[in-house]
Design brief:
Mean pLDDT: 94
Shape: globular
Low-confidence stretches: 2-26
Strand content: over 45%
Length: about 800
């Protein structure tokens, strides 16, 4: 969603006047560059601040608004959202990103879409998982995540690494151009017609949505227009089975303010016989209120229609806004026609700990408080009341109550008016059934099987003397058929935000302070600090990247106990690689270890034999034996200062290259992932082997994740000055040397796609083959460099190189 800034802040200032939200002034948002994408500017947090929801998602820091592109992909739920990571107010929009295995335990991830890295206005949009690769965008084993954004038209972005990085399809050019004001595309798979469908809001002839169809997510055809004055911003459209019956499918069309109509969809046109919409949630359904811009997940593994919305009223010292708790949507028959129900997802139960229940009790002012012995901060209450014989005028719960009779919030049912929190709620068979989700900054109330839903933000005081719960009745009594209290634990801290690893968590620290940064996990220690996974092993390969900033040493720990006692292969700024265990240095090798440079370490254990490799060299720098530890945990160690670790992986996957000694960077940052050698550079960066050649065949697989170019460098000096044959996303293969483009060949180069390059040198003759073709695309002569080193180049890009061979 793009809202005119003035209009947005009118709404927010209205909220402020009502005491619902306070905005903290912020500096204008800024965007990064390709070299530092993904951006991750967040300060550390334990997610335990006052008013921070413990089971409602909020951004680690900064402003958030609309949910975007909610998908279940490659075994993980992805929650993208409108985001200003640089301030507490709306500003230049990014797409934030979080993931969860279960819709409950969320982990903040780096920025997904970033201005100046990804083109266009990155406002609200939808996302899908292209499981059948209808787009042809898939480049590896993972299903592509394809998302849609921009304004006054629609652009396409996609990820082939499960959301770690995104590319702009067709350089971000609009695949749909809309001359009127438009935004907020939402895409879904139309199973009956075996094609994709998009609804996108525009003001063409007034509020409404335009419907488009596509066979492949890239080429779109206008299908129809549905106009309605209530249909403003952030549309969503999805089928629901009426009363759960197979063959009784209806289609639901919603707006940002949670208004909806039920109708039919023939693959081209949505139609309804409703004369006006219903309200799905009874909260404050405007931008900055307590329920706005709800969106449903696509591709859920069990077929559920799961929804989350923006709650703008929650804020704290470092964040503004949160998401509603995920609910499953259903459609039920009523006397008034089909109606939506909203029910918290069953996975909420994973947070439950202490539970207490009551049955067949009477609530009146003369009796004690049934909940009087409970003190709680975050919890769930379910209760069913029999109101047929009730004499009470009102009954309900005081939440976060205090001994002086005050409470932070009351949930009240009025028996005469038949209202709950002032909203209509008729008893069903003489019963009123409530379900309350109470979090530090959120209160969500459900009733009547989910037909009643009211999402709200509440500033709950978490102090010990403010954690009471009062069940009350006023003016008489009411029967409580049953009630259950369940304490809910925090959902935070179960996964890693920026540390890329195939090791199982949860991780734990044994010494030192460990925080998330864009480059991985950063430690600050005085003495030894360990960060340990929950995965143990005996024999195998373990590898990772270590950058020593101010630290004296850092390395890979393995076969360790929970305190870190085991083996560690360490980089030491005294100029050595060392294998040690508590009380003994097993082996030491002199090596050029540099502060501020990323080094790659690899360890292989075979029984008592332990070998250590440095910086992708073919031969180990340490080959030793020790029998003290036979198995244990994998982790990392930092000693005396600050260091950053990344790409911690077991297994042999990594950078495959020709035999060489240690590789050396000259510009840029170079890391090793299971996919290969990763490069990130603002301008020219080189990663150079110690192997040189004169005449040879040199080839490999190259990819520009995002940015400009990457290539094979050869006949180079130690600063990278030599020849480079590269692929350039401006649309060419190029052979160049410093100061001269020797030859170019025009050909499309797509970000995120892997290409094979081969170079053959014969004296001054240099030929370049592209994509496995039989004939060279470049055949040129140049005599500037007769011999030199082999390496890889990255220019203003994030890149991957793999399978390098020299023959």
């Amino acid at each position: 969603m793009r809202r005119r800034v003035g209009a947005l802040f009118v709404a927010l200032l209205t909220s402020l006047a009502a005491g619902l939200v306070a905005l903290v002034p912020s500096a204008p948002a800024v965007a990064g560059t390709t070299g530092d994408y993904p951006e991750f500017p967040y300060p550390p947090t334990t997610y335990s601040e006052p008013l921070r929801g413990q089971f409602h998602f909020s951004s680690q820091s900064g402003w958030m608004n609309d949910p975007n592109g909610l998908v279940y992909a490659n075994g993980v739920y992805h929650f993208f959202y409108q985001h200003n990571p640089h301030g507490l107010a709306w500003d230049t929009m990014h797409w934030g990103h979080a993931t969860s295995p279960d819709l409950v335990h969320w982990t903040q991830k780096p920025i997904a879409l970033e201005p100046d890295v990804h083109p266009g206005t990155l406002f609200s949009g939808g996302g899908v998982v292209d499981k059948d690769n209808t787009s042809g965008l898939k480049t590896g084993s993972l299903d592509p995540i394809v998302v849609f954004s921009n304004t006054d038209g629609v652009s396409v972005f996609y990820s082939n690494d499960n959301g770690q990085t995104f590319q702009a399809y067709d350089k971000g050019r609009k695949q749909i151009s809309i001359p009127d004001e438009s935004r907020d595309p939402k895409v879904f798979w139309d199973a009956a017609r075996h094609r994709w469908t998009m609804v996108v809001w525009s003001n063409e002839g007034g509020n409404g949505v335009s419907i488009y169809t596509s066979p492949n997510l890239l080429e779109w055809t206008f299908a129809s227009r549905f106009n309605a004055p209530w249909l403003f911003e952030c549309p969503d459209m999805y089928p629901l089975a009426l009363d759960g019956r197979t063959g009784a499918q209806r289609w639901v069309l919603t707006s940002a303010s949670s208004q909806y109509v039920v109708g039919s969809f023939d693959g081209t046109t949505f139609s309804t016989d409703w004369t006006g919409p219903q309200q799905m949630d009874l909260g404050t359904t405007y931008a900055g209120g307590s329920f706005y811009a709800a969106q449903t997940f696509t591709n859920t593994p069990d077929g559920r229609t799961v929804q989350m919305a923006w709650q703008g009223g929650n804020r704290g010292s470092t964040w503004t806004g949160n998401a509603t708790f995920p609910v499953s949507l259903a459609l039920v028959s009523t006397a008034d026609g089909p109606r939506i129900t909203r029910t918290p997802v069953a996975e909420l139960a994973s947070l439950g700990s202490e539970t207490k229940s009551w049955k067949n009790e009477t609530v009146d002012a003369g009796k004690g408080n049934l909940f009087g012995d409970i003190k709680a901060d975050t919890y769930e209450i379910t209760a069913r009341f029999d109101v047929l014989g009730a004499s009470a005028d009102r009954f309900g719960f005081d939440l976060h109550a205090r001994s002086d009779g005050t409470a932070d919030r009351s949930v009240v049912y009025d028996t005469e008016a038949q209202t709950l929190q002032g909203k209509p709620l008729k008893p069903v068979n003489g019963k009123v059934t409530l379900r309350l989700l109470v979090d530090r900054g959120q209160l969500e109330t459900f009733a009547d099987g989910g037909r009643y839903s009211l999402s709200d933000n509440a500033d709950f005081d978490s102090a010990a003397n403010s954690q009471g719960i009062r069940l009350f009745a006023v003016g008489g009594k009411v029967k409580l058929d049953s009630a259950t209290f369940t304490r809910l634990n925090t959902s935070w801290g179960t996964d890693q935000s920026t540390l890329l690893s195939n090791l199982k968590g949860p991780w734990h620290a044994a010494g030192g302070a460990w925080s998330d940064v864009g480059a991985g996990k950063r430690a600050t220690t005085s003495g030894d600090g360990f960060y340990l996974s929950a995965q143990s092993g005996a024999d195998g390969v373990y590898q990772g990247d270590i950058s020593l900033d101010t630290a004296h040493a850092g390395g890979l720990t393995f076969r360790a106990n929970a305190a870190g006692a085991g083996y560690t292969a360490t980089l030491d700024t005294s100029g050595v690689v060392k294998l040690w265990r508590p009380g003994k240095d097993i082996a030491v090798h002199a090596a050029p270890v540099s502060a501020g440079r990323t080094h790659h370490l690899k360890v292989r254990t075979d029984g008592s034999r332990i070998r250590v490799w440095l910086d992708n060299a073919t031969a180990p720098v340490i080959d030793a034996t020790d029998t003290t530890y036979t198995s244990g945990l994998f982790g990392v160690n930092v000693y005396d200062g600050t260091a950053t670790v990344q790409n911690l992986n077991t297994g042999t996957a990594g950078f495959s290259a020709f035999p060489s000694g240690s590789w050396t960077p000259h510009g840029g940052n170079w890391t090793v992932t299971p996919a290969g050698l990763g490069g990130a550079s603002a301008q020219n960066g080189f990663y150079l082997s110690d192997r040189s050649g004169t005449d040879f065949t040199y080839e490999g697989d190259l990819s520009v994740t995002n940015g400009t170019a990457t290539g094979l460098t050869f006949r180079a000096n130690t600063a990278g000055a030599g020849y480079t044959a590269n692929i350039d996303t401006s649309g060419m293969v190029k052979l160049w040397r410093p100061g001269k483009d020797i030859a170019t060949r025009t050909t499309p180069i797509v970000e995120g796609r892997t290409y094979h390059l081969k170079v053959r040198t014969d004296g001054t003759r240099i030929r370049v083959w592209f994509g496995g073709g039989a004939d060279p695309v470049i055949d040129a002569t140049d005599d500037a460099y007769p011999a030199g080193l082999f390496g890889v180049n990255s220019f203003a890009a994030n890149t991957v190189a793999q399978n390098l061979t020299v023959g």
